[in-house]
Amino acid sequence: MRVLILGGDGYLGWPTALHFSQAGHEVAVLDNLARRGYDEELGVQSLVPIEDLETRVKAWQEVSGKTITSYAGDLLDADFVYETLRDFAPDAVIHHAEQRAAPYSMIDREHAVYTQHNNVIGNLNLLFAIAELNPEIHLVKLGTMGEYGTPNIDIEEGWLEVEHNGRKDRMLYPKKPGSFYHLSKVHDSHNIEFACRIWGLRATDLNQGVVYGLETEATKLDPRLSTRYDYDSVFGTVLNRFIIQAVLGEPLTVYGDGTQTRGFLDIRDTMECLRLAVENPADRGEFRVFNQMTESFSVGQLADLVAEAFPGPVQIEKLENPRVEQSEHYYNVKHTGLVELGLKPHLLSDTLIESLFDIVSSHKDRVNTEALTPTVTWKRPAKEAVTA
Ligand code: NAD
Ligand code: USQ
Q1: Model confidence over 59-113: pLDDT tens digits?
Q2: Whose CA is nearest to atom 34 of ligand 1?
Q3: Counting ligands in written order, which one lies closest to the CA of residue 255?
Q4: Measured between alpha carbons, how far is residue 343 from residues 11, 95, 263, 293, 302 in Å?
Q5: What InterPro entries does UniProt report for this protein, alphabetically (predicted)?
Q6: I want to staple 143 with a disulfide (CB 3.0 to 4.6 A). Which of 52, 207, 293, 322 is the partner?
Q7: Catalytic residue of the set 16, 148, 173, 185
Q8: Pick the CATH number of 2-372 from 3.40.190.10, 3.90.226.10, 1.10.10.60, 3.40.50.720
């Protein structure tokens, strides 16, 4: 199949491109390099050195003999989106290309507006381009488990059978997201469901949990193929941060009492979920939702797991939670759709933590330890901040 990967220079987009190329698909990537810009803005860098996109693509050609086509540009530029779809003529589009950090979206008004504008309008441009140029294209969109929040009922896969005043309907599952970023994904999901219902597009929304890990079968083939690994308090995700903190001898930063629970998955499973979704497309008019996570852990449990696995001493520090989120909550997620398509999950107990300690150790001199401390809070903005 011809697969276009939007956000193909990112943490997940780049290994996704390699995974599909390795599986024999014709692959193209599109990116505006915004993610590299956030690094400059925040004064941080990926823990593991990464090559520029051109070098990555050349390295893959050398290593595998396979070509990945590259399109440099912005999803906010509708003409560019249409031109790319006309030029590459994909069967499937995998859409990773959004601002993805909750804390970044909560910095201030400017960052909240940027996040929602970038994510919602980029996705809308894509929906219109698919509808006008080829409604057969299967859109595979990265959503997030955080769209649901932590409701006090079971989390279903996107849809909920509701009985109200004696009548029944199948409704989109109600959402209680926890940041302006997570809200942008809710808005995207609604726009995509509308496009499927009204225009007959076909889409799979993958409500993905927090991803951990670095290496995939393909990225391991050459250091130039490595993907990024973030550790800072804005873009670094919790387990990746705990591993780095353990290696550096810094305390593991558990926010609040650590009882907040999330869904997680190994980076290798992300790639497989995407392949399964693309190779088993949604029907025309179908808005299909999968919960893309394999295990649930509380943040406190994760800290304990890292501390147990690390060969040296580890300190766990409970910080005042910079976010507003529930603790001690119910969390029971249905995630059978991808398993039914054939997913065989890598569980956290499969020794991944130990292998990450070694990789992290070899790059630890690149860490700016100041960037480990959380600085963004969910506090209501002060009056001056709103009017500035
Ligand atoms: P990332 O920030 O590393 O990659 C996103 C890429 O999209 C970047 O390379 C960026 O430059 C590009 N991009 C952003 N806006 C763009 C635009 N307007 N036009 C063109 N390119 C643009 O993020 P990631 O961690 O690889 O996540 C990929 C997707 O998966 C995101 O949509 C994210 O919300 C979702 N997701 C990630 C995780 C996780 O733990 N990393 C978990 C759940 C869901
Ligand atoms: N947390 C800590 N200590 C830390 C960092 C985080 O206790 O040092 C806690 C947070 O308070 C939160 C949980 O860990 O309760 C997860 O935080 P995170 O930063 O790892 O993940 P999150 O902000 O939810 O966002 C990440 C990705 C995002 C994706 C989301 C999936 O950045 O793109 O959408 O995971 S989910 O959480 O399922 O919505």
Answers
A1: 999 999 999 999 999 999 999 999 999 999 999 999 999 999 999 999 999 999 9
A2: 100
A3: 2
A4: 21, 20, 16, 11, 23
A5: Epimerase_deHydtase (IPR001509), NAD(P)-bd_dom_sf (IPR036291)
A6: 207
A7: 185
A8: 3.40.50.720
